[in-house]
Amino acid sequence: MPEISHVIWDLDGTLLDTEPSYLLSGMELARRYGRELTPAIRERMMGRPGLVAARIFLDALDIPITPEQFIEEREAMLEALFRECQPMPGALALSRHLHAHGIPQAVATSSDRRNVGFKTVRHADWFATFGAVVTADDVEHGKPAPDIFLRAAEQIGAPPASTLVFEDSPLGVEAALAAGMHVVATPEEVYRDRVGHAHLVLTSLEEFQPEAWGLPPFA
Predict the structure, then answer these.
(1) What is the CATH number of the domain that holds 94?
(2) What range defines the domain where residue 186 resides?
(3) Neighbours of 103 (CB within 10 A)
(4) Which carries the bigger pLDDT value, residue 210 or residue 23?
(5) In the prediction, which pLDDT does 163 show?
(6) Which of 65, 82, 99 delimits the end of a domain?
(7) Is 196 strand, coil or helix?
(8) Which residues have a catalytic role annotated?
(9) How many Å apart are CA 156 and CA 151, to the nearest integer?
(10) pLDDT class for 78, splitting at 50, 70, 90?
(11) Rounded to two decimals, what is the model's pTM?
(12) Cβ atoms within 10 Å of 165's Cβ, excluding its own
């Protein structure tokens, strides 16, 4: 394994367990219009900026509202759900361990800054340990373009070849690889066969062994 000096995290489904919130709200919106949200449509939406994901949803299900209306309807449901989201298994312990050993870390998320605020409101002390939080508002091209990871790397002085990205979505894995970084994927089981191009695929962050990447081992 390469010697890793910096770490960049995806947010949704990697640091925080927000995917159930997206799933519940998406299923409810589809149901309102007599449609069904399938895993294939969810996969195409995962990791995309909000408006892009909205267009995919509406086009795939042939729902006659605008992307802006979709976001307005969904966010009315999501705000309360986001405020209750909890860390993914292993995420808090691993990121705090790296912070305690002086490893620079950043977050690179396809969420907009407003929603990041809702998701992290109960975790302010934790997210203060990250050197940068880059959102969809900060880049022109979202995942699978590498822009968001490159911007995060720039903000924490991370050389791409020595940077490890934690991701859960196929598009996020593509984006990190396009940025020239190493990737550990922790996908939902239904998408596991879609992230095989990551350097390592785990069921949970609890399985991650820092020393294998030249990072400080757990005591």
Answers:
(1) 3.40.50.1000
(2) 6-17+87-213
(3) 19
(4) 210
(5) 98
(6) 82
(7) coil
(8) 10, 12
(9) 9
(10) confident
(11) 0.84
(12) 29
